[in-house]
Structures are given as C-alpha cells and as structure tokens.
Amino acid sequence: MTTNADSTGPGTGTAPRRRPPAGAAVLREDVTEAIRSAVFGELAAVGYARMSIEGIARRAGVGKTAVYRRWRSKLHLVLDLVSAVAVQGLPAPDTGTLEGDLRLLYEVASRALRHPVAGQIIPDLQAEAARNPDIAEAMQKALREGQQGVASGIVAAAVARGEIREDADEDLALDLMSGPLYWRTVVVRDPEPPENHLAGLARATAAALRAL
After folding, report:
1. Residue 17 and residue 5: Cα distance in Å, rounded?
2. pLDDT tens digits for range 54-70
3. Do 69 and 6 form a contact (C-beta atoms < 8 A)?
4. Buried b / exposed e across 144-157, counting CB within 10 Å, b at 16+?
5. Are domains 1-70 and 83-210 of this chain identical in fold?
6. What confidence tens digit (pLDDT) does each residue in 68-99 have?
7. pTM, 2 dp
C-alpha cells in the first residue's frame, strides 16, 4: 500500500498526477520549502502569537495536512526553522586579514539584519522567547552555533596568520565581534549605518581581538 503524496492546492487533499512508487519518500521538497517560506511571511505579517497553521497553509498554497505531515504544531515548525538557521550560519570570510574578514562579515550580517522581514521577525521571536522556554532555547542555540562557527573560523585564520594569540578566548571574541553590530541593528534599530561605520567597527574589533 502506498501513501498519497502532498496535496498541491489549499485544502484539496488530492494526490498529484504522478504517484510515487511503493516505498518512495512522499514528502515533496518543493512543498516543504513553500511551507518554510510561508512561515517567514506569516511571522513578518502577523507575528508568532497570531500565526496559525491555516494561515501558513493558505500562504503556501497547500492543505493543512501537508503542514501537519511535517510538523506537529506551529511551535515545532518555528523551532525547526530557527534551528536550521544555526546549521546554515554565515559563510566564513577569507580575505587574508583579520580586519578584512571582520569588515566582510559585518557587511553581510548588516544587510541580513536590516532586511525588512528579519527586522520584524527577530524582535517578535525575542518577545516570545521571554515567555516560551522552548523558543528561548532554540534561539540561543541558533545564535550561538551559527555565530560561533563564523567566529571560530575568523579567529582560527587570524591565529594561523599570527595576528592574534593562539590562546585567545573564543567566547570573548564572539562577544566582541557580534555585540556592537547586533546592538545597533536589532536593539537600537538604526536604519542605516553611518558612512565608514562598518570599516571603523572592523578596525576597532580587530584591535580588541589582538589585545585578548
């Protein structure tokens, strides 16, 4: 007996024209990606508290059953997406200098954090994290693992080039590298960094890391 693949229209519950062979995976990746994109859209539009499986399914153009086949609830769905961010992380820069790596990291991260969707979603999830320990744990994991991987790569490369000490404190390095940019973009929510701000931040952070 085979199981029907995901529905392709809202609330249809109908199988696509081509039925997968017996034993084949039935969770279509394109449907999964459509649902993930819809979650980000719903978070930005209505926030976590008002977000519903019905709204996600409607935005994704699928039936509710397609969502529930993958996640038990909206909480599990959001936790999965937040955890995925930790796995993806940011690409580790490789410019050949510590200051250059930091400048490139800040340019990429600044654009990402200032994206309108991110600007709406991050504060909302932070507010939910204060009320929901599961979301708080997932966000902490995503932020620490994602940023830690980038920080470790930058620190390791700088150590190999002899720019900073081999016994530099990685946790402190992460705070120095991430704190100022996060403060300005997420907490203060400055719409655009002043001219040469990122270059100055990279220069100051590099000097602080050399002093560790």
Report:
1. 10
2. 999 999 999 999 999 99
3. yes
4. eebbbbbbebbbeb
5. no
6. 999 988 888 887 877 666 555 566 788 999 99
7. 0.62
What are the domain boundaries of the chain? 1-70, 83-210
- Give the DSSP H/E element, type plus range, for residue 205: helix 197-210
27 phi-psi bin (left φ>0, alpha ψ -120 to 50, beta other)? beta
Degrees to nearest 5, angle at CA 104 with 90 and 33: 30
Q: Classify domain 1-70 by CATH number.
A: 1.10.10.60
Burial of 62 (0-12, 13-18, 19+ CB in 10 A): buried
DSSP conformational letter for 51: -
> What is the C-alpha to C-alpha distance for residues 197 and 117, in angstroms, rounded to an integer?
23
Task: Please write the tens of the pLDDT for every residue from 133-148.
Answer: 888 887 777 666 666 7
Select 83-210's CATH number: 3.40.50.300, 1.10.357.10, 1.10.10.10, 1.10.3720.10.
1.10.357.10
